[in-house]
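User: New here, any thoughts?
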Amino acid sequence: MGKTVILQSSARSGGNTSLAAETLGQLVNADVIDLHNYTIGQFDYDFKNSDDDFGPLIERIITQYDIIIFATPVYWYSMSGHLKVFLDRISDLLYNNKPLGKQLNGMKMGLISSSSRDSIDPAFGLPFTETANYLKMGYLGHVHTWVDSNKNLTEKVMKNLNQFAKKIQDC
């Protein structure tokens, strides 16, 4: 198994998405990074945000890990704004730091989503599968999570997380 990092991207650090990310992190011995703790500006073609936290963070991720799992709540039928900005900033590597960006090739990527429902539209994962394809990363799949009325992950979610953990461990 490669070294795994989970990028938790909820606007609420201790919420349901964080619970799912931390749970998977324990199952696969992964580091969990909360994007809420970083200042990452939006992508622009003039690279005006080059002195924010994105550069050092993405360099650390690329050089220290083999597997990236994105963890996001479902906000308005899409990923969190934090994660969207982070993914957009990967464009920095395509224009401004190609040698580092090329190191994404061959890495693995996966997705955890979290919402108040027990199902999600399959199209939710499209930006992630297409990003993995474009960057020549192996896509490990998507596990959707939710909590019960006691704010616990359900038995079905735990089963799904365990299956996802097995897939990560097999890498």
Remarks:
- Strands lie at 4-8, 31-34, 67-73, 108-114, 138-145.
- The first helix runs from residue 16 to 28.
- The helical segments are 16-28, 54-64, 81-95, 98-102, 126-134, 155-169.
- The mean pLDDT is 96.
